[in-house]
Amino acid sequence: MASVAVNQVGYLPSGPKRATVVTDALEPLPWQLTDGDGRVVATGTTEPRGTDASSGQNVHTIDFGIHHETGTGYALTADGATSRPFTIGAGLYRPLLTDAMKFFYCQRSGIEIRDELRPGYGRPAGHLSDSDVPCAPDAGDYRLDVRGGWYDAGDQGKYVVNAGITVWQLLHAFEHRGGVDDLALDIPESGNGIPDLLNEVRWELDFLLRMQAPDGMAHHKMHDSEWIGLPTLPHLNPRPRVLRPVSTAATLNLAAVAAQGARIFRKYDADYADLLLAAARTAYTAAETNPIRYAPVDDATGGGPYDDDDVRDEFYWAAAELYLTTAEQQYADAVLASPLHTADVFGPYAFDWAATAAAARLDLALTPSELPGRDDVRASVIAGADRYLAVQRAHPYAVAYAPPGNQWDWGSNSMVLNNLVVLAVAHDLTGEARYRDGVLEGLDYILGRNALNLSYVTGYGTDFAKNQHSRWYAHQLDPSLPHPPKGTLAGGPNSGLQDELAQARLAGCVGQFCYLDDIESWSTNELTINWNAPLVWVAAFAAESNS
Question: What are the residue boundaries of the Cellulase Ig-like domain, all occurrences included (predicted)?
């Protein structure tokens, strides 16, 4: 049965406008575009693309970029199938940017979530006892105040390495994207003279500072002593909390984002910037002294392990951020001496919590400095972007992500978005429209132009994910609880199928079809802070691209 997949939110008047048709036809087909009144406003023929490896479908492409008139209720028809309705308009992505960023307030730990600020999401403060948490027997013989921060994902743990890449990406958006410094997020700190995005990120930075141990290292994570079931609201969670051991990776994450935060907060709060920079320096020195303290893969009771036994990328990243903030020679030397500085760091996906070298590369390319060889750094980003653009152009759904063996990664939606970040930075560096168009068309996949005809962002599109794995946005299990907030990104197709429900329902799935919008499918449908962060970043770029 034929279908027409579109960006269900819509298309910018001056941006690319394409859709994907699933059909048995092998020859070009006629298509038509109708407006909100049902009038035919454009016609053409499809481009056959053959079998799409990521879905196993026979597909065609519709290119309706000739139509620039704005309006709502547009629809495409081909081979007897009609798309979901969509808009053509200039202001599509500012609301998505705002909602994607508002997500983080609802993830806060240690503070009441006020219902008048988030109607339907109010709840008492969770885990106030995090102000006095003991170390596990293998982690030390002291207690720390590690209150605050964001709950990491669908569980109620707090993980330094996932916090690190999330904070980096949000601060990177603030430093290098327009239109995020005046976001109105309706949070308790709004109106204090500091941009709301920085206010929200500070909630997490403060937590990261508290995770620094007396010796300067950072604890890898803290969470429940045992897994808690669904649904459980944070303030009703009875499990005791525990600090897990320090790790080199966590310590370098702290060094990187505290240094970056010091650079960005300097304009708004010099004392806080000084505090962050001091913590960053201490952490970096501690990591140099303890370079192989790895988080074990089997530390998975009550919280995810976030194991990582290669921290060369974290050393490179932390040195880069410290150099960009201080301009000191010791950090420049560390950057230039890193084997990753001249390596190709843009693999099938650009970066995530366990692969941070590209984060360093992007900041070194964009942030002004006197680092020798900066032209080569910029050229490497453009080369990475060219590779992702080639992947996207070859893909019938215009996805700038092609994992080896068509084995889609856990959190694949975030990897798609992070690859789009590289395209956007290449646009910043070159001004070339092809990179901008690549970002915009890549966002189509997230918002409905995919094999499932599903927007992966709650509240955006006609058909959207709304049962992401969470212990408190658990409407599927308890109708008195809400769905995730509008603007929440689902993890997306994951060929690994690590949860039992996915294994039972999706055995033998191909690529894009390895997804369930079910709260029990934690391997395909979780929500996490580090998946919403690239949604914020890319939505900010798209919101800038109206003209």
Answer: 3-83
